[in-house]
Amino acid sequence: xxxxxxxxxxxxxxxxxxxxxxxxxxxxxxxxxTGRIMVASTEAVTPAGCFADEAYIVPPIKxxxxxxxxxxxxxxxxxxxxxxxxxxxxxxxxxxxxxxERVGTTVICPEPELVDLCFDKGRLEDFLxxxxxxYPRTFMPDQLKEAEYPLFYKxxxxxxxMGSGICKSYDEAQTILAxxxxxxxxxxxxxxxxxxxxxxxxxxxxxVCVQWIRDKVVAGEAYRSHTxxxxxxxxxxxxxxxxxARRQLRGPLNVQIFDSDPPLVIEVxxxxxxxxxxxNVACGGRLMSAVLNEAxxxxxxxxxxxxxxxxxxxxxxxxxxxxGTQIVKISPSR
Length: 334
Known about the structure:
It is a single chain. The chain is α+β, with helices and mostly antiparallel strands. The protein folds into 3 domains: 6-109, 3-Layer(aba) Sandwich (Rossmann fold), CATH 3.40.50.20; 115-120 and 190-314, D-amino Acid Aminotransferase, Chain A, domain 1; 138-187, 2-Layer Sandwich (Dna Ligase, domain 1). The chain contains 11 helices and 17 strands. The strands form 4 sheets. Strands 14-13-10-11-12-15 form a 6-stranded antiparallel β-sheet, sandwiched between helices. A 5-stranded parallel β-sheet has the order 3-2-1-4-5.
């Protein structure tokens, strides 16, 4: 009989830090202590795969065979927990959570309704309005002529800043609309963005709530960051988290907030994204441990304000040299 004690990271790709931190967290969970950390990717060789115990090739997320391939890996390789890293992966996986449960695997992913609520920026805006949570002023396409420019636009169901930008005039807005019509248009806000990484336990309590600011961003990824504790941002973040908890959201989430007066909610992400490695270290490893512990049936607790303020992150590049699938050298080494 297969011993389900392994963890599989979807779309692991280059995120070595996520693999290493999850491996550390596995040692704090009895059910996973003897397990292996695995990576699934569309590529045969990836940096994260080189640092994992095993790596598997899977079809692209939108391929019809993607779910069946993952289910087969989970069933045959004893995967207890699947950790997706991309929004689009959650959208794909959410309707199939029961199928994974039937083979003995828990996916770190909310129910489809909650995934869609946070992924669809139009629905999220309706939610924020209903909950009286402030957000940037939004304009419908027929209101753009009277809007004050510049405006910020983004895809209603986009991710990773793809398809977003600053629009400086009504004529430019019409040109953009002629190419893509499913957009959200908002007032342009020039205040700093604060990321609030959180975890809602199965009891409905927020047990992690780490604030950090991205100081240097390259291609949408934070390369330098520092943790902060801004009371007004903390309060809005906590209100947003509690509102989602009342909707039965459980697990990891990220709330993006403008540090304006008053603060404004930008968006909410329900994935365990690559930046969570920073928050995990800031809170002493509680975030990753909670993710895995509750996936294995435990209940986690903790003080959401217990994290290191003023800690900095400086990401750096590494190299994987290979001939075909034969690894020649990894730097830094494993």
